[in-house]
Design a protein that fits this description.
Helix 1 links the parallel strand 1 and strand 2. The protein has 77 residues and is of the alpha+beta class. The chain has 3 helices and 2 strands; from the N terminus they run βαβαα. It has a two-stranded parallel sheet with strand order 1-2.
């Protein structure tokens, strides 16, 4: 997706699909360009605080604060 110039958006779920640990690894591998992170509050088990929790984990794992700002806010704007 990124190689073809598209944007990638990921919804963080606590037990299925994309978890915050996996999201951190993707940001470490691919960087913050054209990637967005969001949370869910829908039909399944979800955590509306998934974005700040993922951001905190990114800080712990040494991801640059500007990259965190991009994927959790600015890229969506």
């Amino acid at each position: 997706v990124l190689d073809r110039g598209f944007w990638a958006a990921f919804t963080i779920y606590p037990f299925t699909k994309m978890g915050n640990e996996r999201m951190v690894e993707l940001i470490k591998q691919y960087g913050a360009e054209r990637i967005m992170v969001n949370s869910a509050a829908d039909w399944g088990i979800s955590d509306p605080l998934a974005v700040p929790k993922t951001a905190a984990l990114m800080v712990q794992r040494g991801i640059d604060k500007e990259a965190i700002r991009l994927v959790t806010y600015q890229n969506a704007v």
